[in-house]
Amino acid sequence: MVMTSGTARDDALAYCLGELRREDRDRYLTLLFATRAHRPLQAALYAFNLECARAVTAGGEQALLGQMRLQWWHDALARGLPDKANNPAHPVLTALGDQPHLILSMHGLLSARERDLTDSPFATLAAVVAHAAATGGDLAALAAGQPGSEKTDAARAAGTAYALAGMLRAIPYQRPGRSFQGRLCLPQDVLVGHGLTADDVWSGRQAGLVAACARQVADAARLELAKLASVPLAGAAVSPLLQGSLARAYLQRLAKAGHDPFSPKLGLQPLARPLLLCWRALLRRA
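RESULT FIELD:
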């Protein structure tokens, strides 16, 4: 990658923050608690993840369209940062700057998203958790830095729990079609164990059994959150670890709704999220 001017990087960072503020409000809010030194790279990584999610949504009605968008990012990462005068970079690439150590992991994030467009439904609960770890978990680990450290492992657990909570909240949109948000997170073994099919999930005929299935996925997310108990909020891990706080809050809302993924009460109030994050930041605990 070539060097870019400070102004170009500042403009690219502003772009990333603006996109996150509009379409990934949760991670945007966690960035407000990140240190100034770590915020630019984390914003770029989160904006890259947003582009991946957009590609999956675009592939809801036509998988090839989503695959083409993800392939564009594969190719862009392989080429590196183009010359601004002759071939302007996407703002996310500019914001990332010269980070060759991240490229392989970012290709991994793209490959994980491709599986939402090309793979069959999840066979087991373990496969659901593995996918959450390969998307939200690995993203949070990249944001935390320090590979192999306790904080990075905890960040991966926080990101995995947040991804699982998000997949549960997205169940109404996990049927391929308009607003598609990835594969149904209720795996085949759990559905079969309750005598259900995927069509039963969206039909509304077996709401109690669907809630029982959702609870099993939620319990897997809670197991991930248990890994955060002894890890303080500090350094680069602040933003990714705070995703665990949000995951816990969403899971609590889901539990109050009887684990009904179609309940209209699963979201958090606009002021609740920043207040929650402020409180957890003061406690220095996710």
